[in-house]
Specification:
The complex is a heterodimer of chains A (480) and B (457). Chain A is α+β, with helices and mostly antiparallel strands. Chain A folds into 3 domains: 7-288, no CATH class; 295-399, no CATH class; 416-477, Arc Repressor Mutant, subunit A. Chain A has helices spanning 57-69, 161-178, 218-237, 283-292, 297-306, 312-318, 322-335, 338-356, 367-378, 384-397, 401-407, 416-429, 431-438, 444-455, 462-473; strands spanning 7-18, 73-74, 77-78, 81-84, 94-97, 104-105, 108-111, 114-125, 129-132, 138-141, 148-154, 190-200, 210-215, 245-250, 255-261, 271-272, 279-280. In chain A, strands 1, 2, 6, 7, 8, 11, 12, 13, 14 and 15 form a 10-stranded mixed β-sheet that branches. Chain A has a 3-stranded antiparallel β-sheet with strand order 5-4-16, with no helix packed on it. In chain A, a hairpin with a 2-residue loop joins strand 7 (108-111) and strand 8 (114-125). The longest helix of chain A has 20 residues, at 218-237. Chain A is elongated. Chain B has an 11-stranded mixed β-sheet with strand order 1-3-2-4-6-5-10-11-9-7-8, sandwiched between helices. Chain B has helices at residues 8-21, 33-48, 90-97, 140-147, 164-170, 204-214, 257-272, 288-303, 322-333, 336-349, 355-375, 401-406, 412-417, 446-455; strands spanning 28-31, 59-63, 101-106, 153-158, 173-176, 196-201, 243-247, 276-280, 381-385, 421-428, 434-441. Chain B has 457 residues and is α/β, with parallel strands linked by helices. Chain B contains 14 helices and 11 strands. Chain B has a single domain (1-457), classed as Amidase signature (AS) enzymes. Classes of the chains: A alpha+beta (480), B alpha/beta (457). Chain A binds chain B through residues 43, 46-55, 82, 84, 86, 88, 91-94, 140, 267, 269-271, 274-277, and chain B through 65-67, 73, 75, 80, 83, 85-87, 89, 184-189, 191-193, 219-223, 298-299, 301-302, 304-306, 308, 310-312, 322, 326, 346, 349-351, 354, 358.
Chain lengths: 480, 457
């Protein structure tokens, strides 16, 4: 019987996030995605002789913001180095990146409740894009050449593919909160490479790792890492050895192929870029950025659970995006009714967002209107049902809730005398049912409620109806 | 410039005529005849209306490693044979804004790598003083164009002596400013932390006025100094008690005795004017050439990676795949000296060698800078030879590149330290070849250097 301990995976991630700066990292060209190929280029990002890089400080701002959000140490001094290799979409024959003095060191990001330690966050420029055409030729689009990236490198502390995805998801939420990256894996604005190895549980001795690239979605990331864990585990159990290599994930076949072996790996010959100077990041610079930092998702989550008494589930859904959380807070700040505000977000707002496939910023009903509906429900002016109807209607028309309620006369009837008269009439019209109720058939109570609501066209205050009807029929009030 | 007294178009025509007469010098890679003439006309008009720039009518040649929009820029290499930049270097824009007339691009060593102008893909340049001799390098065409009066001033570039050494060989003034005071934007990079653009001319006044125009901060060059530029063309009286240092390390074995005697008589001359000259020591001088070649080749190996045949420049058509395309394009496009330096630079940056070579050379660079800082705390300027040898015959090739590199022994230190240095013509050797002397100052003391050079000429 095999008594050797089980093999457990050890995973480290390298994530590239493309920054949403207006211009590229070292020139004034637009960093926009999706423009006509080779339209956003200049001598600098084309690598023409004599053209020199000038740092876009905004990218450093973004790196510092992410560093603050991840509790990293912000370096006092930072510099850029050249990573030398030849590739047709790399115009200068080197990538300007950071090795010795990255902008951020250490820090962590939560994956669920586990702190995943970061090694570093550094700034670098993106390469262009090789487009392999059907006729076997390759076209190169250099619009992306020089677009700023942050590379986030974790320590090898991730224990499963699911945890890796959870980490990625947290990171994506953070960069979106900071508004520094779209976080769109399919479009490539967030890219993930994974270093995977397996080791005997409890041994503490890391196995030989492989690197998997080209995982262009959360789902593929999970599949690719699981694939590689299984492959390595089987290999070792069969008496084989893992070789250090770089693998390319193929989402179509659900498998990975070898991109290059260790022997083929590049010697990048890093050295400080002499065209750029070492730069200082003062405490003042960091402090100024701290002042404009939005509240991070995890802090919001804690606050919503603790101070707003939301369920962890609701708090989790609402804090998934900064826009949604901001929307919730806008509603809640007017109503002070956190529970109802959260309910509206969780049901009607999310439903409409999904139905219409729109973003929170495009949402047709402003938070003030939803707040006003909640306030009117709470004050008894309208029923819940009317509120939902009004919501759907103003979502189409853009009319103000109060105006619509006024125009269509949708306010609840909360006038006892009027209601009493209406109830008397309904009872008088249905003597047989009244008799049945008095004989003990309590179900008939609902029938009367229905009739009264119909009579009032949904506007009768249900609480009042309940009380008055109970009195008339000689019964203690149902419900409350 | 006494602009009223010369007819600009005629002057330009005369230069063009001389350039034609001196084709055998091979000083120019390209000449902009029509453009120079029409520019002369329009600037003449500006002069008569009194609305002209500081350099109105000055005829300037430009080393073919500096970008001029839509004009060929070969860097004297086959790999850029048919290349024309889409933009102009900052120095060019500044010259043109002050109404200089750019008459052509001058030959040089390939990518400014060489000391004889013999590594050019377009043939060697002859020294106008003695046509059997090289003009020096790498700015050989620039120095020759000035010495042969084929222009008023030439812009060269100096990475380890490439302005001063050819100026010395051709008997003209050559100025390497403090690193960072002239923008490198548009200068084909050889070794970015060393490369300096500077003027070569027949007198200090021309150097000073060109420096007025081309120096000063450029936001396009991150290494460019923020300090306001000096007013070079307005001479100031030399400070009282000016002291000159004579570095003993520059007088050792290998220095031609004739150069030494020119140096001695120069020193005697300035002493007789009451200027103090005292011996100083730059103890790390003997490490300069080694550190220089490690660091410049490292930077060059990376800077020249962009010439890959993908986007512009020579692309080999004999390739069957990507790697072959790279290899053949670069094999066919680069000359031997450039290949040698790329290989050397690649080696010193390689894993396992980086610390032993690159890092150590950076330390030496720091020590050399410290040497100068120490010396300049006690003296204002340094006087030294520019080169150890007097001239060199064309084709009298160095069988050992090391021997050629050692010719840079007196010039590389200024680039390692970033300090300004000026070649001044001192006279002629017994064989009738020019001899130059070198003056150096501390960083940003360029003005003092030029004022002194003007005073003692």
């Amino acid at each position: 019987m095999d008594m050797s301990p089980a093999l457990v995976p050890v995973i480290g991630l390298e994530i590239h996030v493309q920054l949403k700066t207006a211009t590229k990292l070292f020139c004034g060209c637009s960093a926009k995605f999706g423009d006509e190929p080779n339209s956003n280029v200049c001598p600098v990002c084309l690598g023409h002789p004599g053209a020199l890089p000038v740092l876009n400080k905004k990218a450093i701002d973004f790196a510092i913001l992410l560093g603050i959000a991840c509790n990293s140490t912000i370096s006092g001094k930072s510099l850029f180095e050249r990573k030398n290799y030849f590739y047709p979409d790399l115009p200068k024959g080197y990538q300007i990146s950071q090795l010795e003095k990255p902008v951020c060191l250490g820090g962590y990001i939560f994956a669920g409740d586990k702190k995943i330690a970061l090694n570093r966050i550094h700034v670098e420029e993106d390469a262009g894009k090789s487009i392999h055409l059907h006729d076997g030729t390759t076209a190169i689009d250099l619009n992306r050449s020089g677009v700023p990236l942050l590379e986030i490198v974790t320590e090898p502390v991730i224990c499963s593919a699911a945890e890796a995805v959870e980490f990625l998801s947290s990171l994506r939420t953070i960069v979106r909160y900071l508004d520094i990256c779209d976080g769109n894996m399919e479009e490539g604005s967030l890219r993930c490479d994974a270093n995977v190895s397996v080791m005997p549980a409890g041994s503490g001795i890391l196995g030989v790792k492989t690197e998997i690239k080209n995982m262009n979605s959360f789902r593929n990331t999970e599949k690719a890492i699981n694939y590689e864990i299984e492959r390595q585990t089987e290999l070792i159990l069969d008496g084989g050895k893992v070789t250090q290599e770089t693998l390319l994930w193929d989402p179509d076949s659900g498998s990975a192929r070898i991109m290059r072996s260790k022997e083929e790996s590049n010697d990048y010959r890093y050295f400080p870029d002499p065209d750029l100077v070492e730069f200082s990041i003062s405490g003042e610079w960091t402090e100024q950025l701290k002042m404009i930092m939005p509240e991070m998702p995890r802090a919001r989550f804690d606050r919503y659970v603790k101070d707003h008494s939301l369920s962890p589930y609701d708090a989790g859904v609402i804090t998934q995006s900064r826009e949604l959380a901001d929307f919730y807070e806008a509603v809640a700040s007017i109503t002070s009714d956190f529970k109802s505000s959260a309910n509206w977000i969780m049901t009607d707002v999310l439903r409409l967002l999904n139905e219409r496939k729109i973003t929170v910023n495009q949402f047709p009903v402003p938070p003030e209107e939803i707040a006003s509906l909640i306030n009117m429900i709470n004050s008894g002016e309208i029923s819940n049902k009317i509120a939902k109807m009004v919501f759907d209607e103003i979502a189409d028309s853009g009319e103000k809730a109060a105006d619509l309620i006024e125009r269509k006369n949708l306010r609840q009837i909360s006038d006892s005398a009027g209601l009493e008269k209406m109830i008397d009439e309904v009872i008088a019209r249905h003597p047989a049912q009244a008799e049945e109720f008095r004989a003990g058939k309590e179900k008939v109570f609902g029938f009367f409620i229905g009739q009264i609501m119909k009579e009032s066209r949904g506007k009768a205050n249900p609480k009042l109806v309940n009380i008055i009807l109970s009195g008339k029929l000689g019964k203690s009030a149902v419900g409350n | 410039m006494k602009t009223g007294e010369i007819n600009l178009p005629e002057n330009v025509l005369a230069f063009l005529h001389s350039i034609g007469e001196n084709k055998s010098l091979n000083a120019y890679n390209s000449v902009f005849r029509e453009e120079a003439l029409s520019k002369a006309d329009s600037i003449a008009g500006k002069i008569s209306s009194g609305d002209h720039g500081k350099l109105a009518g000055m005829v300037i040649s430009v080393k073919d490693v500096i970008s001029i929009k839509d004009k060929p820029m070969t860097s004297s290499s086959a790999i850029l044979k048919n290349f024309s930049p889409v933009y102009s270097a900052t120095v060019i824009e500044r010259l043109l804004a002050e109404d200089a007339i750019i008459i052509g691009k001058t030959n040089s060593d390939e990518f400014a790598m060489g000391s004889t102008n013999e590594t050019s893909a377009f043939g060697f340049v002859r020294n106008p003083v003695n046509r059997e001799y090289v003009p020096g390098g790498s700015s050989g065409g620039s120095a020759a164009s000035v010495a042969a009066r084929l222009c008023d001033v030439s812009l060269g570039s100096d990475t380890g002596g490439s302005i001063r050494q050819p100026a010395s060989f051709c008997g003209v003034y050559g100025f390497k400013p403090t690193y960072s005071i002239v923008s490198r934007y548009g200068l084909t990079s050889y070794a970015s932390s060393f490369d300096t653009i500077g003027p070569i001319a027949n007198n200090i006044s021309d150097i000073a006025i060109v420096m007025d125009v081309i120096s000063g901060h450029d936001p396009k060059d991150s290494t460019s100094s923020q300090l306001p530029p000096a007013n070079f063309s307005v001479p100031e009286k030399l400070p009282e008690g000016l002291k000159i240092g004579l570095p003993l390390e520059y007088l050792g074995e290998g220095l031609d005795p004739q150069i030494k005697s020119f140096l001695d008589s120069f020193i005697n001359r300035i002493r007789s004017r009451g200027i103090k000259v005292e011996p100083v020591s730059l103890p790390h001088t003997s490490y300069a050439v080694a550190a220089y070649y490690i660091l410049t080749t490292a930077e060059a190996s990376s800077n020249l990676s962009r010439y890959d045949g993908v986007r512009y420049g020579h692309r080999s058509l004999n390739n069957s795949d990507l790697n072959e395309m790279y290899t053949l394009s670069r094999t066919e496009g680069f000359g031997d000296e450039v290949k040698l330096r790329i290989m050397l630079g690649t080696y010193v940056l390689s894993a396992g060698y980086y610390d032993a070579y690159y890092k150590k050379a950076q330390k030496v660079r720091r020590l050399i800078k410290n040497d100068f800082d120490a010396v300049f705390s006690s003296v204002d300027l340094i006087i030294a030879p520019t080169t150890p040898h007097i001239g060199k015959k064309i084709g009298d090739g160095f069988t050992d590149p090391l021997q050629m590199y050692l010719g840079d022994v007196y010039t590389t230190s200024a680039n390692l330290a970033g300090i300004p240095a000026l070649n001044i013509p001192a006279g002629y050797s017994d064989s009738g070849l020019p001899v130059g002397l070198q003056l150096m100052a501390n960083c940003f003391n360029d003005k003092l250097l030029l004022d002194f050079g003007r005073e003692v000429r």
